[in-house]
């Protein structure tokens, strides 16, 4: 299953050349994963209260075309693999008007951790069930 989240490019997202600064694509992807958690009914603030968080272990991104101020985009996220404490996401930033126009694409490896120690820990069972259903 894929999850799509709309993004509008704001002026603050762009660099002096008027294009989206490369690191902001990672922020867009983060928002896509966060909204997917909300879609599953899981609020990260509740997880934090339970001493649970997610940490990005690895991010690999390819950039294909520049997004510009006021572009309407979508972050399209899919789960590629769930294993142990890890989830590998495949994410694309595409045009909201034409999903064939891909701006950036990447694989983000996320690890569930105990927040107080930052050590890997098993994912909460209800989250694992939801993610496995969508994978």
TrEMBL record:
SUPFAM superfamilies noted in UniProt: Thioesterase/thiol ester dehydrase-isomerase
Domain of life according to the entry: Bacteria
Keywords: Hydrolase
CDD domains per the UniProt record, alphabetical: 4HBT (cd00586)
InterPro entries: 4-hydroxybenzoyl-CoA_TE, HotDog_dom_sf, Tol-Pal_acyl-CoA_thioesterase, YbgC/YbaW
Keyword flag Ubl conjugation: no
Gene Ontology molecular functions: fatty acyl-CoA hydrolase activity
PANTHER family: 4-HYDROXYBENZOYL-COA THIOESTERASE FAMILY MEMBER, ACYL-COA THIOESTER HYDROLASE YBGC
Record-stated family: Belongs to the 4-hydroxybenzoyl-CoA thioesterase family.
Protein name, UniProt field: Tol-pal system-associated acyl-CoA thioesterase
Gene behind this protein: ybgC
């Amino acid at each position: 299953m894929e999850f799509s989240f709309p993004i509008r490019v704001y002026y603050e997202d762009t660099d002096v050349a008027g294009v989206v600064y490369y690191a902001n694509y990672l922020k867009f992807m983060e928002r896509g994963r966060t909204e997917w958690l909300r879609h599953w009914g899981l609020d990260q603030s509740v997880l934090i209260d339970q001493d649970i968080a997610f940490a990005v272990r690895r991010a690999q991104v390819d950039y294909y075309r520049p997004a510009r101020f006021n572009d309407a985009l979508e972050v399209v996220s899919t789960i590629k693999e769930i294993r142990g404490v890890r989830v590998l996401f495949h994410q694309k930033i595409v045009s909201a008007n034409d999903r064939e126009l891909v701006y950036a694409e990447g694989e983000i490896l996320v690890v569930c951790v105990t927040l107080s120690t930052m050590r890997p820990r098993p994912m909460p069972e209800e989250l694992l069930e939801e993610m496995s259903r969508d994978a």
